[in-house]
Write a structure and sequence with these properties.
Number of helices: 10
Structural class: alpha/beta
Helix content: 25-40%
Distance between the termini: 35 Å
Strand content: 15-25%
Order of helices and strands: HEEHEHEHEHHEHEHEEHEHEEE
Strand order of the largest sheet: 9-8-7-10-6-11-13-12
Oligomer: single chain
Largest sheet: 8 strands, mixed
Radius of gyration: 24 Å
Number of strands: 13
């Protein structure tokens, strides 16, 4: 088996190791050390903030001098900065690593550049190996680097004529069971679910992700409640597996930045017309999930309020990414058509990005 075959297989293993680490502010990274003959001699992964990076974790399993002349296969470009730990690029140089193979460039200005440092010191460097697979694993983290905030999905259900509720305020259920099941699946994929306090007071939602049998999904989004009124002591949200995060909602970009600092990559906005309109008006929506039921309700209870469109010339155009039939209902998956309305999708290559939380040990 050739060296390139060994490196290809080792990158697949490194990706498996990376997935063992927690998803959060720091990326999930895995590493495999190959001897000069191509044999695996050490493995490692990043276990979360305050712990060794994957490369150093792998090296820690080797005796002094055992890594000299070896190849380090790692999912993300070795970092080049000092956070809670020193730069991995320097650790590889100190260990005598002769070749480094990685999948994806580190897009963060503060931690990128490790490959250049390695090359300048005589290490052979190859990149892009199995980048698609590693990019899929790191998609949410790469997206937060590009946006400097979590991915925001805004969901609502409406009648065909754009109403979220009947004239008397009743809204259960606008859509059918298939659409509701799809919502719960998407809740389970999110890190946080955000609603306005008005929704909590009016509907008393649990804000959990549940299966068809009502059982809680293994992963639960952290509930976030926006508003200045208090949560009632007997509210269902207080029985959620995660304690709710409460914010007054005066600074939505600031709230998203604070959620990112807590390791939240995906935010699912599901809080009624007021909060949905506020997020769209502030140009913070990256994805729109619009569930449309084949019914007419009429009246004034529209699914959206003021989104900052005073005239037709200012209309917010959408790109329809997907259309999904869910029983009698239809889901439209859209995104802002204008680049200024939402951040670009994550890229698996280095790009100029705004300041972000640094990769720290």
């Amino acid at each position: 088996m050739t060296s390139s075959d060994n490196e290809w297989r080792a990158m697949g293993r490194a990706c498996e190791l990376a997935a063992r680490g927690p998803r959060g502010v720091n990326p999930q990274v895995g590493a495999v050390v190959l001897s000069p003959t191509g044999a695996v001699i050490a493995e490692g992964w990043h276990r979360g903030a305050g712990t060794h990076h994957a490369e150093v974790d792998a090296l820690s399993h080797l005796a002094p001098g055992e890594a000299r002349g070896a190849t380090m296969v790692v999912t993300l470009e070795p970092c080049n900065h000092t956070g809670r730990t020193g730069p991995c690029a320097q650790a590889l140089l100190d260990a005598g690593i002769a070749r480094v193979v990685y999948a994806i460039d580190d897009p963060a200005d503060v931690s990128g550049g490790g490959s250049e440092r390695l090359r300048e010191n005589g290490v052979t460097v190859a990149s892009g190996i199995r980048a698609d697979e590693v990019g899929a694993l790191l998609e949410s983290w790469l997206g937060t680097v590009a946006r400097a905030r979590p991915l925001v999905s805004v969901k609502w259900a409406q009648s065909l004529d754009g109403r979220a509720a009947a004239a008397d305020g009743t809204s259960r259920w606008v859509t059918g069971p298939e659409a509701r099941a799809d919502v719960h699946r998407r809740r389970a994929e999110a890190d946080a679910i955000l609603v306005g306090i008005g929704t909590v007071l009016a509907d008393d939602p649990a804000l959990t992700a549940r299966g068809a049998d009502g059982a809680l999904a293994p992963h639960q989004p952290v509930p976030v409640v926006v508003g200045r009124r208090g949560i009632p002591r007997d509210a269902a949200i207080l029985r959620h597996p995660h304690p709710p995060i409460v914010d007054d909602g005066r600074d939505l970009p600031g709230l998203l930045a604070r959620l990112l600092e807590r390791g939240i990559h995906r935010v699912f906005v599901e809080g009624g017309p007021t909060i949905a309109s506020a997020v769209i008006r502030a140009d913070l929506a990256d994805e729109l999930l619009i569930y449309v039921a084949p019914m007419l309700l009429g009246g004034a209870r529209t699914a959206l309020g003021d989104i900052g469109v005073p005239t037709m010339a200012a209309a917010r155009a959408l790109r329809i990414i997907d259309t999904v039939r869910l029983g009698a209902d239809t889901l439209f998956v859209g995104a802002p058509a204008s680049p200024h309305q939402a951040a670009s999708p994550p890229a698996a290559a280095r790009a100029s990005a705004p300041p972000t939380p640094e990769r720290e040990g």
